[in-house]
Specification:
4-stranded parallel sheet, binds iron/sulfur cluster, 5 helices, single chain, alpha/beta
Length: about 110
């Protein structure tokens, strides 16, 4: 499974208990967390959203031009962040990505603490 991970850049840049993308990448490499059902989880891209999120869809299009992916995963921190994104509803965003790119969006990556 070719995976594009999408993360909340505002959250990631704060580094709350997660050095960079480490937890997402480890879970994919070890097929843990939300990747556990895949035969293989090949991360082909890691895209950080930037507030207020207007560029996200076009940036995913940019990724798609260069590398294909079968599934998009929202990083666990993006899904569980509190307070959540003040600009977008995460479920609505997932649907928009699914409709635009014809791929499933999974809400989460790892389940580490
Ligand atoms: S728009 Fe929302 S999801 Fe995107 S970086 Fe800002 S807070 Fe995070």
């Amino acid at each position: 499974m070719r995976v594009l991970i999408v993360a909340c850049g505002a959250y990631v840049s704060e580094g709350y208990g997660c050095p960079g993308e480490w937890k997402c990448l480890k879970a994919a490499a070890d097929k843990e967390g939300h990747f556990s059902e895949y035969d293989e989880a090949k991360v082909v891209g890691f895209l950080n959203c930037e507030c207020p999120g207007r560029t996200l869809i076009s940036n995913i299009k940019c990724v798609k031009k260069n590398v294909d992916f079968d599934v998009v995963h929202f990083s666990t921190c993006t899904v569980n962040a509190w307070p959540g994104c003040p600009y977008m509803d995460i479920d609505e965003l997932a649907k928009k990505i699914e409709n635009t790119f014809g791929v499933k969006v999974v809400k989460g990556t790892h389940q580490y603490g």
